[in-house]
Amino acid sequence: MLPDTDDAERRAAKFERIAQVLIDRVDRLEETRGSAWSMFQAAVALEQEALARTRDLERALADLSEKNRDLAVARAAAEEANRSKTRFLRAASHDLLQPLAAARLFLSALSDTDLDPLQQELAGRLAGAFESVEELMHAVLDISRLDSQRIEFHRKPVELDALFRRLAVEYAPMAEAGGLRLSFVPTSAVVDSDPTFLRRIAQNLVSNAIKYTETGGVVVGVRRRAGFVWLEVRDSGVGISEADRARIFDEFQRAVREGGPQGMGLGLSIVRRACGKLGHPIEVESQPGRGTVFRVGLPPVQPGTALGEGNGAAPHGLRARVALIVENDAAMRRGYELMLAGRFGMVARATGGTAEALAAMGQDDPPDVILADFNLDGGDTGIAAIQALRAAAGQPIPAVMVTAQRNPQIARDCAAIGAVLVEKPVCPEELGAVLSRTLSRTRA
Predict the structure, then answer these.
(1) Is the Cβ–Cβ distance between 196 and 161 less than 8 Å?
(2) Which homologous superfamily does the CATH classification assign to the domain defined by 322-442?
(3) Which top CATH class is 156-298?
(4) Bridge partners (DSSP) listed for residue 310
(5) Pair 321, 347: CB distance under 8 Å
(6) Are 374 and 410 a contacting pair, CB within 8 Å?
(7) Cβ atoms of residues 343 and 432 within 8 Å
(8) Which of 18, 233, 288, 386 has an alpha carbon 20 to 30 Å from 99's alpha carbon atom?
(9) What gap in Å lies between CA 31 and CA 47, rounded to an integer?
(10) pLDDT digits (tens, 9 = 90+) for 332-390
(11) d(CA 367, CA 362)
């Protein structure tokens, strides 16, 4: 309230100031209310934007979920297609390799006869053609096996010197035909690996080195470095440029050598796959025109460790030994007969199945060795034949199983009954070495 002593003018001034203060307060209240309204409107707009973005995100997640389902279906289809491919190759391998194996046996028997120069040339060209087909089929089957998620390796101690001796016998003719020196440096190294795949690795490296070497030769040996035994294949060939070193391990990548034998470009791809699966590091050094060296790192095995299956030996002690053949294919039976009798001087008794083999063996005349094919007629198998023949003879007759199937279960079944497994196509020298080794082990 205003004092009564103030005059009218003073009281009017005070009322004016009070009115101005009230007007200012009302203005501020209006401003505050306008700001709150703006904030409210902004909040409503943000909420609407958030709802729109949420709907967009939900649609994107639904689309991603649909794409993931499509991807899962496509992946399952691709895996099934890969499994189907593997099953087909495994099933077809027997039918594909059977006639090739028979042809190789007949050609081997033909080469052991007296031929005129033209016939010798034709036989040599046929042998080369069969070797090319065999190499291609082995490469395709090896790649299929190495790409399979269910591949099984059977690692054991491998004596490299024995492997070298086998490779020397196998590749000496190829090197001589090219006018090259092929040398294997003796070694006492024993390494841990899968014998079958280690041999394939070495075969591909040696074969590749010979193919792309025009003059000089190929040297195979070992070096010990960084905790590994390094298998080295060194050649004096055309070499590999630095730009090409990254692609030489891809499929169907090969150097073109004028006038020389041409590979399929699968050998080094198999080497890379096998080394990767086995955990063996691989190195390559090369200079164009000055040669190449490939190295594969292998874990050493301590001396005195029991060795696995040997890597081959020259056939001996086969003459006059009796081999009972159990093979349902007539061409293969005849091929075995010609090879065993003509090349190794063995007595070959050829039968088509378990019942016929039992009848041919007789009561008191067991053979020295059984040579059986895994796939026989009417559900019969080489496993059943070997077991029946051993039971009838009352003794563990040495046995060699031959098959075109790359099936780990067959390898396990053969190991369980103590039969040596050989894969088709059958090389006469290899089969002779296996028979000799099997009979030598029995005599010992």
Answers:
(1) no
(2) Response regulator (3.40.50.2300)
(3) alpha beta
(4) none
(5) yes
(6) yes
(7) yes
(8) 386
(9) 24
(10) 888 888 888 888 888 999 999 999 999 888 766 789 999 999 988 888 999 999 999 99
(11) 10
